[in-house]
């Protein structure tokens, strides 16, 4: 059995988590600050705050921008539902943009047409760890008061030649879900280079309380000046994340090596459309596109028969999900690439413990598929 995902948790991590559990100091501990500092160091961001999930990070980012009913936020039609949900939570309206079929990322060329006076923000997703065309997006938004939120759920380690994902807009929102490059079980983080934005999300994530527990001169000495949430991460989760991130450069190099192996072993397969290989991508997964839906279905059955774990990111475009379909009833012709992508995409495993033998075996199954 080849699993789709394996968490990179070693004995040192387990030992540290056990120590924290025995200490009784389960929140507001030293590892939370260590993990935040390590994320800042790794991404190059000025500020970081840990949260309970990437969904929470996206929601807090939308709240900090004071999005409300009547506002519009452009989001990709092909992404996890959390991306659009975060906008919906505020009362603002997600405006779905189709994707570029080759990359799976939002089609930058469509954004110009969707911007109007109600547009307050754009949420971009770095699909599978492939960076969106951020420089082109910044040019489109030049002189416009429209904020960029980056959904970096797949993007830890994703860069261009000079900047880590999450640093192009006002916020970068990361996920530490079990399948991600670094995991804390559930968990997430927000990075930003805007001090005012940082202060807002930090207060919003902890009930609206104006002082951290470490900032209070006396127990219970704090005020609540606004409505907030309980979106905090525990210290034992932070210990898991911190120790994995310390070694993440090794993890990332292995992921990029695995992706290159996939690329080289599949490049002559006419049934498969491959993403371009880039040493700047973090390869949360390695996505392939099959030439048609029938081939994808046959290959998925082959993987199941041969006990190979794969996944699909994602199987349905958001405008086709029942909630959004019922609420907005958008024309299918607006999301042709998203629909095609959903029908043809398969995500292959790229975790560091995946052996070269397993990579070759996975590729042999794909290459044995006849047209």
The beta-strand count equals 10
Tell me about the biggest sheet?
A: 7 strands, mixed
Spatial sequence of strands, sheet with the most strands: 1-7-6-5-4-2-3
CATH homologous superfamily title of the largest domain? Type I PLP-dependent aspartate aminotransferase-like (Major domain)
Fold-level CATH name of the largest domain: Aspartate Aminotransferase, domain 2
CATH class category of the largest domain: Alpha Beta
Task: Quote the distance from N terminus to C terminus.
Answer: 26 Å
The H-and-E topology, N to C, reads as HHEHEHEHEHEEEHHHEEHHHEH
Shape by Cα distribution: globular
Strand content is: 5-15%
Q: Over all CA atoms, what is the radius of gyration?
A: 21 Å
Q: Name the poorly predicted regions.
A: none
Domain tally: 2
* Portion in helices: 25-40%
The DSSP helix count reads 13
The SS-based structural class is alpha/beta
The name of the CATH architecture of the largest domain is 3-Layer(aba) Sandwich
Mean pLDDT: 95
Q: How would you characterize the overall build of this protein?
A:
The chain is of the alpha/beta class and 371 residues long. It has two domains: 11-246, Aspartate Aminotransferase, domain 2 (3-Layer(aba) Sandwich), CATH 3.40.640.10; 248-367, Aspartate Aminotransferase, domain 1 (Alpha-Beta Complex). It contains 13 helices and ten strands. A seven-stranded mixed sheet has the order 1-7-6-5-4-2-3, sandwiched between helices. A three-stranded antiparallel sheet has the order 8-9-10. Strand 4 (119-125), helix 6 (134-141) and strand 5 (147-151) form a beta-alpha-beta unit. Helix 2 (30-43) packs parallel to helix 8. The longest helix is centred in the last third of the chain and has 19 residues, at 248-266.
